[in-house]
Amino acid sequence: MSAPLLSVDHLSKSYGGVKAVQDVSFTLERGELLALIGPNGAGKSTCFNMLNGQVRPDFGRIRIEGRETTGLDPRRVWALGVGRTFQITATFGSMSVRENVQVGLLARHGALARMTGFAGRTLAAEADDLLALVGMRDAAERPSGELAYGDLKRLELAVALTNEPSLLLMDEPTAGMAPADRVELMRLAAEIARARRIGILFTEHDMDVVFEHADRIMVLDRGRIIAEGTPATVRRDPKVRAVYLGEGHLFGSEAAA
Amino acid sequence: MDFLVVQFLTGLAGASSLFLVASGLSIIFGVTRIVNFAHGAFYMLGAYIAYTLTERWSGALGFWGGLIAAALAVAAIGALVEIVLLRRIYRAPELFQLLATFGVTLMVQDLSVLIWGPEDLVGRRAPGFRHSVDILGQSVPSYDLLLIALGPLVLGGLWLLFHKTRFGVLVRAATQDRDMVAALGVNQRWLFTGVFALGVFLAALGGALQLPRDAVSHTMDLRIIVEVFVVVVIGGLGSVGGAYLAALLVSELNAFGILVMPTISLVLVFLVMAVVLVVRPHGLFGKPEGPPRAAIGGLIRPWRPLSGAERLGMAALFAAAALLPLVAGSYVLSVGTEILIFALFAASLQLLMSAGGIASFGHAAYFGLGAYGAALGAKSLALPFPAALACGIALGTLGAAIFGWFCVRLSGVYFAMLTLAFAQIAWSVAFQWTSVTGGDNGLLGIWPPAWASSPAVFYWITLALAAAGVAAIRAIVFSPFGYALRAVRDSALRAEAIGIGRRGVQWTAFVIAGGFAALAGALFAFLKGSVFPDNLGIPLSVDGLVMVLLGGVETVSGAVVGALVYRALSVVLMSQTDYSKLVLGLFIVVLVVAFPRGIVGSLQALLPRLRRARASSIGAAALRPAE
Amino acid sequence: MRTGSVWLAALAASVALGAAAPAALAQQGEIKIGEINSYSGLPAFTEPYRKGWQLAVEEINKAGGVLGKKLVVISKDDGGRPADAVTAANELVSRDKVDMLAGAFFSHIGLALADFAKQKQMFYLAGEPLTDAIVWSAGNKYTFRLRPSNYMQAAMLAEEAAKLPAKRWATIAPNYEYGQSAVAVFKQLLSAKRPDIEWVGEQWPPQGKIDAGPVVQAVAAMKPDAILNVTFGPDLVKLVREGNSRGLFKDRAVVSFLTGEPEYIDPLKDETPEGWIVTGYPWDSVKTPEHDAFLKAYQAKFNDYPRLGSVVGYALIQSAVAIINKAGSTDTEKLIAAARGLEFDTPFGKSMFRAIDHQATLGAFVGKTAVKDGRGVMVDAVYRDGAKYLPSDEEVKKMRPQS
Question: Which residues form the Leucine-binding protein domain (chain C) (predicted)?
Fold first, then answer.
């Protein structure tokens, strides 16, 4: 039996005495969708930023398919097959939709140091395939700077897929989208994950999305994991109910974005 | 020992003078995020108006009242400038404000000559502070003691203002979150005006207080502005306490430095700044800046390489340019050659600014290093002309590689200031290292060999090299590397997440841009026959920025057009008027406010609209509205 | 009809008569001097200079011009930048077709123009630049210089300094080529005359950016008997003020370059330090017929008193005209041949361009500073003929490239 896709042991991080993440451990397998939920300030983003190398943990280990990645910078982590989308979309606003994907593909092929040839013509077919996968093929020529927010999220997903990742980190993938689009985007992501055997770790405020698509759910509160399990288990967990009731949110109702 | 104490006190007095001006700059930046180049001009106006008032009003009251009245008058002028000019460009990138205020500086220089005449003016000594006090057996001017006290007093006063008044609390809130203050229903516009006027008041007061120590002259502004910038950057932009500490550091290091090494003054402040910024990228007390405002204004539709027809057009333009020697005389050809050289220089800067999104304020350093490299190659190594050019490129590239390695560690205004610091260090070396560079007297007799010396042949050589250079820069912009560079500019976060390292990419671009600038500089040396330190100077760096802006910072190579228009304009102005600074300053201000897209950018914005009017294609080329 | 033709005849006659008049004859063709200076960068110095040459041009044309032609000066601004000076020179030579180049204030601009003149084989008459290089190490066949050079000023001052009892000397000079070479020459000449002198320290503030307090304090700590000052302009004002308040100049001799020139001493007003030994130009106490005539004409035309720049500008045109008259043509080679060893008039009396290095022997006044009626003046000023303050021919030959 090989090592799990992602295994996290005793991860901790504090900022000026405030413990943002404490002793978090979990694993994630290929093809699995794991949701990380919790109220605002629970430490979800810090956790994410440690996983892709933006933030260095104080303590704990992160391994991807058995390889230690703790303390590696985002570029190295990416090279190991980790794709990432951001809570507030980060795309290349001055480029067309296709060019955004092409940059990702060029990076994957290690071709970005080349100073000759027109980048806009290289790997165009591959880029279009990825765009087709996220349903953006028709928008390939459009300036990404003028896309609607939902389309930007799709584009980001396509860019995150350029390095054929085994692990996808999605920070609030549906934030800011209309409810119908949310479900559709998450369904798309789940399909891709299962088809390509990608493990997805995502955070999400929209509990409809979480409970519909996640295989497993972890609940983070004040930096600690307070519950973990299938959607059905977590839904019944009294601690989770307390946290969310205390916050004034109810399961099934819509969380504020 | 006694001597050292007194030297320390003297340094303290210098620190206070510097701090007054620096604190104003820091406050203005902290709240409005404007890098106010005109701060030196307000300092100078303070001194001039104080001179006029104190010459008219007699007695102690007349003197001190004159100083305060002058500072208030200049503050009013500052408020006017803010309302008329700066309000229109708050949302624009820092570069635009810096250039607009630079334009104001140029205008004030010529205006003050027109109003107060060209001669240096020596104002009154302060009543009651004419003499000196004996401290440890040494004479210390009593006015110095007054200044020493004034620094901490102003620092304390500002602290009280910011912590104990409603205005101050709002200002501090605005420093942290401008939009929030707007949401609180505070009239942000007047808050900004108030802060700007306060900063200008401090600058003018600083200038007025120099009346008993200094001569009032129309070069005061540039003498102080660079040093004040450095102090504010060392202290951390927006930090008043940091500014005081930095002023203290710079003044004391200078006071004691000259005892050990009397020639250190010129480079000292820049060395201190370089060291501080390398160790602490945001200055002593500075906080990381928020996300920088887009280096580019309202973004455009994605850049496209030239179409087949457009390439033909360019080839035709090139052919037309190549035919110029058949119709033009040697003066026009020499001006044409100069324009081509500046087109290459501006295009190299544009690679950094437009594709890289980083504005270098010291790009002249690489131009100048190229010029010196070529000159030294030709003179000292007796290299033939092509090898001397290569020698220039090598020196400029090397310089860019070394300086760039430090600069790309920073971003935004700090990046700009560090590039400026390195350029000033290079300038100081050229200025003072007389045995190698000839110092101020420069290197002479750098003429091309006989086969290349006729204006027409040299023009053709320059045309070929400049066109090849601009074409190469364009090719780089559209190459995979160019995409990586733009990726880092658009979103460093996303770029890192797909494996593109910001520093490496920006450093490579910095070196490439430096290399092309060096080629321009090397050609310039052979065009003029001589090389001088001003080939590395701040004015040339600013010229480069203006050319890029004039051409259109959102374009790939609009700078070529910018260089053409700007250079031709300055040659004509120099030739026709003694008040070229007034005209040029006005030109820059109008440009920034009315045509922020520049010439090529405006044309490009216009063309798609015309095209769409003809054929209603899909809205693919729609412009995103400018912010 | 008849009356009309009478009028026509009268008109034709008057035109014919006019053409015959000498003044109109002078209009037949022009002799053009291309002049370049830092008018926008340094107006305090170049304005009086411009007035000086304008006065000379006016007088010369009134007297019939040069070689029967009208003298025209086409003047350009260089903005204080050598590169722009070369552009301007190019314009003057290729477009305006001037017969000779003249001008420049800054040394480096003078050098750039001298080098340009050599390349383009144009006659260049440098007015104000002080650097020794322009006639010596970077000297060339095409370049002549009018004003007494750095070396000459240093030699005049060193002569006076040698008479002082002072043994311990300190120097303050702006840190660039002018300051460096001024200090070097002064030291060399004074040490040659007075081997007993000890140089106790140097201060090199940056040009235009002196931090005067610490500099004064540092010099005071060297405890010199005498001080050499080379700073000028706003730097000098700051130095004098700090020095006065800190007592640096009390009981110390000070020798100072150029401080007696009205351009530098006037701004100091009643704060002018007393008793400094300086070179300069005491315009109101020069009593020679040549100078009287110049002074009267200048004051009448401009309602202002002349500065040293006015004298240089005036003498620049005087000497240029003398050269062209002697050459009898504007051919560059003939101009050079004519200029070598040519004697010409200036407001300071007769002067000459040395054949060996093309330096004019125009001198300067050496005297002491004083305050009179609330303004700075030079007293006990004596005119020193520049010819006596130049190195021997052998030394010059060693320094000047022989071509």
Answer: 30-368
